[in-house]
Prior knowledge:
90% of the residues lie in helices and 0% in strands. The chain has 382 residues and is mainly alpha-helical.
Amino acid sequence: MEINDSTIKKIRGLIVFAVIVVVAGWNYRSLFALAMKLMGFISPFLLGGVMAFILNVPMRRIEQLLPVKEESRIRRPLSLCLTLVFVIGVLLLVIFVVMPQLFETVLSLQNSIPAFLTGLKEEAERLFAQNPEIADYISGIQIDWKSFLEKVVGFLSEGAGTVLSSTFSAALSIISGMTTFIIALVFAIYILLQKETLSRQIQKLMRAFLPEEITLRTLEVLTLVSDTFSHFLAGQCLEAVILGSMFFLTLSVFRLPYGLLIGVLIAFTALIPMFGAFIGCAIGAFLMLMVKPLDAVIFLIIFFVLQQVEGNFIYPHVVGSSVGLPSIWVLVAVTIGGSAMGIVGMLVFIPLCSVVYAILRGIVNERLEKKRRPKTKHNSTQ
């Protein structure tokens, strides 16, 4: 191998890279702690970027519908204000629709829970009367009440200081969370008001320090990511509205209680892909169980029927088509994302897999096209 300046630079770069990797591997705990500390510093800005991305989806649509000229200076601030009013209005509408239902539910539970417990007690007494061996077994259980009370007193005496410190820590966490949210909201507003300027600055920065081919490819991937995540958010919200409406109409037809409350609750929990509606199912089944156990059984049957319809037909077509991902890969993305990162993984992996699917599809088609070209030329020469 010829030793020249280029080769020396490559060798020097490899040596420096190897030293950095060894040092990082040796001090990985310190580096991880430093990374977590830096994440704490930039977390408000990351949250603000996420908020800006989410708010940009309805804002872009509102800006297109505004009867204001594009060169007008009030177009962007007006669309942002209307977006914030729209989001806050939807939240307030849901609160004012759900709160009366929730208040009535709490009042009805005050009467239904004692009746349920009384019925449960009567059933238990009837069971013990029919099976005396159960009562004999329970009466034979001996509990050292003195030792039990000593443990309770010790726990309370030791836990008093812990509870006080936990309360103080919780108060600090709430204040810190509110501060982070306010900073993130202000940062998101700045991003939305100047998104074109920020986009131009990022492109200029990339072109200044990266080769043109890499810059164009990176911008292409970023555009694909932005479009995919935007379509996913719109499709997820549409699917949640459809599912909530289905439950409200079905429960109303069968004259089951809490139809509106359960419909709105399932619509909100359905924002968690595919499995979020089960949270609303558990709460709805509990509420109906306190009123009439048979209604809870009917509700569970209705839920599993509608869930099958939603999971196999509505969700893959609405969300899958919105991100350009086939139905089978939507299910795979949700399963892997939920196993890896929980709820956040479910929300992220569907558009992420869609981006990977689109990039891989383009690479495969390009390679197949290159393989066909020599054959075509060879056949033409014959």
